[in-house]
Amino acid sequence: MPDPYFQTRFADRIGGPNYGKGTEIYKFEKIKRAKRQALAENPQRSLVDFGIGENDEMAPENVRRILSEEANKPENRGYADNGIAAYKEAAARFMHRTFGVELDPVKEVNHCIGTKTALAMLPAAFINPGDVTLMTVPGYPVAGTHTKYYGGEVHRLPLLAQNDFFPDLGSIPADVLRRSKLLVLCYPNSPTGKTATVDFYKRVIDFAQTNKVVVVQDAAHSLLSYDRKPLSFLEVPGAKEVGVEVHSMSKGFHMIGWRMGFVAGHERIVQAFADVKDNSDSGQFMAVQKAAAAALDDDSIPRQVRAKYERRLKKLVDVLNRCGFDCQMPGGTYFLYTRSPSGLADGTKFENAEAAGQYLITRHSIVTVPWDDAGPHLRFSVTYEAADERAEDALMKTTEERLKQIRPVF
Ligand SMILES: Cc1ncc(COP(=O)(O)O)c(C=O)c1O
After folding, report:
1. Rounded to whole angstroms, how far apart are CA atoms 266 and 276?
2. How many angstroms does the Cα of residue 19 sit away from the middle of ligand 1?
3. Helix/strand/coil for 247
4. pTM reported for the whole predicted model
């Protein structure tokens, strides 16, 4: 295709005149291609897909029913702007019941069309050219991408086993620290599965105050916590003075596609977020907000979601350990993040996790997501489709039969 007349007009942040011409293939595209190859070469072998990071179930029936009722009411038809009071109030009630956190629903809570959009918008409130966002890696990159769009920089804080998968806040060079404005955390952590502790959050609050940094804690997986009761950053004294927590309806309520979440915490940061948001979207459909408010009031939903993914993770950990992996039950999320084999007993060597992941898909039709940002790891998601526990067990049996043959070496 010849270049359009505006090819030289693309902004540098997305590649400038070279936009759309890159030949680099991204990780998820490589996984897709390997899946296609596995299916083409072995059509009789089922694909065991631990790659998908989305809940495998619909939202519960009572939540869907409210959506359909509310969708038929004329008063819900218009722009929702920065959100309806009923959702903010339900969010405040939820935070109080679940975490003992007191929030003013008018000033300290604002809805968002999924946490992805909130993480995309928050840098607009703080980042000028040359400012730095501190981000943990591996992780969800959206706040970093937008930091760079505004001319800022990202400083990566690796999550390593030797630091118990917490960022080493003492490792940041003085020049970077001076320019740092945002610290983006994510607990329970995706993909490592690590949950935060009160002690870690206390250190974060102290770090934020000392260095005048604003904390954004991404709580997308907050209700999927197994090794402790779900913990909110805002529970820890002083947290509300230094930042906000971003909550999602996606994972803990099986509401991935509904696009609902909320930002809660310091009143002035919530206000700044709401101002940016007001200039970016016109709010989620009010019927969705009302159904989401009902979901937030129903503690049985996250309880069931948590029990399901905890059960699946335990089964997977047992299977992988029996097949020569060395993994523990994650503290939270629906991901198992485990060291990737460096090779196989037959002498095969893997250069990195990506190579191991490609081998598992193409040779055994087992899909994982490789992470090489902080040492080679594979992420297994337990959001695979299985109608009931029998189907889950059958899938685990297939996984075990296939992995038993490979004899991984670490
Ligand atoms: C760590 C993390 N943060 C945020 C999100 C975005 O979630 P939402 O569906 O609320 O936009 C995801 C989704 O995968 C995630 O894994």
Report:
1. 16
2. 26
3. strand
4. 0.97
